[in-house]
Amino acid sequence: MKGPRVTLEQWRTLQAVIDHGGFAQAAEVLHRSQSSVSYTVARMQEQLGVPLLRIEGRKAALTEAGEVLLRRSRQLVTQASQLEELAHHMEQGWEAEVRLVVDAAYPNAKLIHTLTEFMPKSRGCRVRLREEVLSGVEDVLKDGSADLAISALDITGYLGAELSTVEFIAVAHAQHPLHQLGRKLSVQDLQSQMQVVVRDTGARQPRDSGWLGAEQRWTVGSLATSVAFVSSGLGFAWLPRHMILRELAEGVLVPLPLIQGGIRRPLFYLYTNPDKPLGPATRILIELFRTYDGEQSAVSG
């Protein structure tokens, strides 16, 4: 593949001619002679084999081809500047990427709020987000594939910063047989019904968060699938309240009137990789999680 014949500096020169109204004005802004600017643009046109400018009175105007190429060149010059800026930040210790693994039960609203606030502060740092269930988060953190992890598990050997709780509710479809009993439900009532649980994505020591008393258990691959199954009348489950707000409001899903244990509120933690020094971007993201996790909890509560 041949290298480009036109340099970024030539594109910058053409942009200056158009943006500042002519060769003389561009020369003043670029701190160059007018003849140097004129030669640069003329040379560009020779190299491209396409006329970029036409003279209208005392001003240079773009040709149709020039308008298209200049518009594309602005993206090119901007990206080159961003690349140089990123290299500068990396030289100062700024990370090129932060790898984040989050338990799928953690509310998306909090995640989106935090990452939205992080974007203008990121200086080009990318975020690689991965969702796992239960010990899947632990596995990713321990094998070094994540810089930050959010999990409700107490991960041995790691100190987690407390975030908020996530409320899980035992629910079933409004027409489910459990609701037809018309009374408080006991352990014996649940044992005869099918429970829907989400598969732990961990490979080392997968954990079973489902209630083990049900004779029938269907294991699904995601919380979204679990919500869909239970909303269709297929079994009961403990589901995060934030994921079933609409179904609860519409009366499709109804909380099970358990004697006890109908609501669970596991506390989530923010973990860091102890084998990797925290860079500036990672530190900013940590502080944003602490800030907006709490604020979102106050709003939703």
TrEMBL record:
Pfam family for this entry, one: HTH_1
**Does Transcription regulation show up as a keyword for this record?**
yes
Q: What is this protein called in UniProt?
A: LysR family transcriptional regulator
Tell me the lineage of the source organism: Bacteria, Pseudomonadati, Pseudomonadota, Gammaproteobacteria, Pseudomonadales
Please give the organism: Stutzerimonas degradans
Alphabetical UniProt keywords: DNA-binding, Transcription, Transcription regulation
Domain (HTH lysR-type): give its ranges. 6-63
PROSITE patterns from the xrefs? HTH_LYSR
Q: Which InterPro entries would you find in this protein's record?
A: LysR_HTH_N, LysR_subst-bd, WH-like_DNA-bd_sf, WH_DNA-bd_sf
Read off the SUPFAM superfamilies from this record: Periplasmic binding protein-like II (SSF53850), Winged helix' DNA-binding domain (SSF46785)
Question: What's a single GO MF annotation on this record?
Answer: transcription cis-regulatory region binding
Q: Does the keyword Transcription apply?
A: yes
Check the record and name the Gene3D superfamilies matching this protein. Answer: 3.40.190.290, Winged helix-like DNA-binding domain superfamily/Winged helix DNA-binding domain
Q: Which family does it belong to?
A: Belongs to the LysR transcriptional regulatory family.
